[in-house]
């Protein structure tokens, strides 16, 4: 199953191009993408995507997450360079995420946190089926290249969360530089951040071969899953009352604030 870039672009264009029914269908397509590809993206971003683009009127029971639709939509379409929301990441990882977000000006901490949620759901000891290890799930050869003993414990390991996160930042910045060279010479087309995230997931050679983001379910779903989390880690969405985050909740209900005038 494939979802082409047009599908994502239409969704990102807001409700002027699609009515609620079209948005529902878009969310269903994305759901199919993620279920079929099993790339580890949480289900709650799919609910969020529907709310981002105006499908339904919010609502649900009391104590749901609160958000401003325009701010959430803006976060989805953004470059993710904003500041982390207070308390949105585990306290013991905050400095590592901020440091990873300072490796270059193009990759901010919101991107780092959103990608971690998509890759591992904050599981520091995760070992993926493809052999990737740790909270950031970097390719093993890339961790060997970019990993350092950032937590000063005498060893460099992808299973050390700080080592993994700091290596993630360095690798993303390296990829972003390579992507911008390809964009400059016309070898690829697309947005720099989307191309960089895709290269992290499937490799830069796959991006070169496709001359952009591959038109595959995996790549389209990967980008949508990460972007849908910018609102949470950037503070445009507040978790339900009394619930800490990061969270694996599906966010089935929202207490919607009216869009800003």
TrEMBL record:
This is Transglycosylase SLT domain-containing protein. Residues 249-261 have a biased composition (Low complexity). Pfam families: SLT. The keyword Iron-sulfur does not apply. Residues 237-261 are annotated as: Disordered. Residues 106-216 form the Transglycosylase SLT domain. The chain crosses the membrane at residues 21-47. The keyword Membrane applies.
């Amino acid at each position: 199953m494939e979802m082409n870039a047009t599908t994502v672009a239409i969704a990102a264009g807001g409700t002027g191009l699609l009515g609620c029914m079209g948005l529902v269908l878009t969310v269903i397509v994305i759901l199919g993408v993620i279920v079929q590809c099993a790339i580890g993206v949480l289900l709650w971003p799919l609910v969020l995507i529907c709310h981002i683009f105006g499908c339904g009127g919010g609502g649900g029971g009391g104590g749901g997450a609160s958000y401003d639709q325009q701010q959430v939509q803006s976060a989805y379409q953004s470059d993710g360079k904003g500041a982390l929301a207070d308390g949105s990441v585990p306290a013991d990882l905050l400095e590592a995420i901020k440091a990873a977000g300072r490796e270059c000006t193009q990759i901010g901490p919101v991107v780092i946190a959103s990608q971690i949620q998509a890759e591992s759901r904050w599981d520091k000891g995760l070992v993926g089926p493809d052999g990737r290890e740790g909270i950031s799930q970097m390719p093993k050869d890339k961790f060997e290249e970019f990993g350092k003993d950032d937590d000063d414990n005498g060893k460099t390991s992808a299973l050390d969360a700080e080592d993994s996160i700091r290596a993630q930042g360095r690798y993303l910045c390296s990829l972003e530089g390579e992507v911008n060279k390809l964009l400059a010479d016309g070898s690829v087309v697309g947005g720099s951040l989307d191309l960089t995230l895709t290269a992290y997931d499937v490799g830069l050679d796959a991006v070169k071969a496709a001359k952009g983001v591959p038109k595959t379910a995996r790549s389209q779903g990967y980008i949508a899953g990460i972007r849908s989390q910018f609102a949470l880690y950037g503070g445009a969405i507040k978790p339900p009352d009394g619930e800490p985050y990061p969270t694996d909740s599906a966010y089935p209900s929202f207490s919607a604030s009216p869009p800003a005038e």
